[in-house]
């Protein structure tokens, strides 16, 4: 069906055909498209000129129970209203000065040691479920990178990763526990995490598959992303610097690392701090 000229449907269609959108990574395009398609399902027939600053705030207000989703929508609206100005469909941007929700951290629960142990008890050594756990826990990678890791990435006692989201290249030393699980992977599989039909997982499908393994372990509120946070927490508790943690996780800034290590055990860190103080010159 042809979009009404000047409508939000028409504007979003033009955005999807723009170099700005087409130049994005496939996973990013899919995420942006999901946000905008949900928006246009409700507001697609509205004219671009109908939107005011107050109406944008009211739309975001209906999403108070989903603050992260609201913030993602605001980011996408800023992009498409910027395009509307370039197209001379309107002379102002109604998203200017509209603020999103303040969110502490990234909303994903960091796995505790007890939860990790409970999952291990449900999924034994040599299983795909255990292998998935250790790839996140000892390599610290996102699910989009985990599903692409395979024997072609193995370099002796290291594994190489080209992160899909950032493009960063990492060479990560293999923890013995992870190496043992990778060695136990089926001989004929190129990737370490294949579907039951011998096909690669998409990141989304893998996330759904992993959640079923979490449920089998009788765990609530635990996600694959939360394991990445647990990996960073463990590194912080071991006394690693932000630079050392970033060398494993691939984060770019100290601020990003701080979000992930917020759950680092206070008692462990305080003990480490006192040891360092006692070891410093002139201190007893």
Describe this structure in words.
The chain has 284 residues and is mainly alpha-helical. It has 2 domains: 79 residues; 163 residues, Orthogonal Bundle (hpI Integrase, Chain A). Helix content is 53%, strand content 4%. The chain contains 14 helices and 3 strands. It has a 3-stranded antiparallel sheet, with no helix packed on it. A hairpin with a 6-residue loop joins strand 2 and strand 3. Helix 11 packs antiparallel against helix 12. The longest helix is centred in the first third of the chain and has 20 residues. The model has no long low-confidence stretch (mean pLDDT 88).
Radius of gyration (Å): 23 Å
Q: What is the CATH topology assignment of the largest domain?
A: hpI Integrase, Chain A
Number of separate structural domains: 2
Describe the biggest sheet?
Answer: 3 strands, antiparallel
Element pattern in H and E: HHHHHHHHEEEHHHHHH
**Overall mean pLDDT:** 88
CATH superfamily of the largest domain: Intergrase catalytic core
Low-confidence stretches: none
Strand order of the largest sheet: 1-2-3
Shape: globular
- What fraction of residues sit in β-strands? under 5%
- Helix fraction, binned, reads 40-55%
Number of beta strands: 3
CATH uppermost class of the largest domain: Mainly Alpha
> Distance between termini?
78 Å
Structural class: mainly alpha
Topology:
Layout: H1 8-16, H2 19-22, H3 26-43, H4 53-61, H5 67-86, H6 113-122, H7 128-139, H8 143-146, E1 154-155, E2 158-162, E3 169-173, H9 176-183, H10 203-216, H11 224-237, H12 242-249, H13 254-260, H14 266-279
């Amino acid at each position: 069906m042809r979009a009404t000229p000047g409508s939000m449907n028409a504007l979003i269609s033009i955005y999807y055909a723009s170099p700005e959108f087409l130049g994005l990574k496939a996973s990013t395009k899919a995420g942006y498209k999901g946000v905008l398609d949900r928006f246009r399902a409700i507001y697609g027939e509205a004219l671009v000129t109908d939107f005011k600053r107050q109406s944008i705030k009211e739309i975001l207000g209906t999403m108070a129970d989903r603050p992260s989703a609201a913030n993602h929508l605001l980011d996408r609206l800023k992009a498409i209203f910027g395009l509307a100005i370039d197209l001379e469909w309107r002379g102002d941007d109604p998203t200017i000065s509209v603020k999103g929700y303040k969110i502490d951290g990234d909303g994903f629960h960091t796995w505790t040691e007890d939860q990790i142990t409970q999952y291990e008890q449900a999924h034994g050594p040599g299983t795909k479920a255990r292998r998935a756990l250790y790839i996140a826990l000892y390599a610290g990678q996102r699910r989009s990178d985990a599903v692409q890791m395979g024997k072609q990435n193995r370099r002796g006692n290291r594994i190489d990763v080209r992160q899909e989201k950032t493009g960063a290249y990492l060479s990560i030393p293999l923890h013995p526990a992870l190496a043992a699980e990778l060695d136990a992977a089926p001989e004929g599989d190129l990737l370490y995490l294949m579907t039951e039909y011998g096909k690669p997982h998409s990141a989304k499908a893998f996330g759904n598959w992993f959640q079923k393994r979490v449920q089998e372990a009788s765990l609530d509120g635990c996600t694959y992303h939360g394991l990445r946070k647990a990996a960073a927490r463990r590194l912080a508790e071991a006394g690693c610097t932000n630079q050392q943690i970033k060398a494993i996780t691939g984060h770019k800034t100290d601020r990003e690392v701080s979000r992930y290590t917020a759950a680092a055990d206070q008692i462990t860190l305080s003990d480490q701090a006192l040891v360092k103080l006692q070891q410093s010159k002139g201190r007893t």
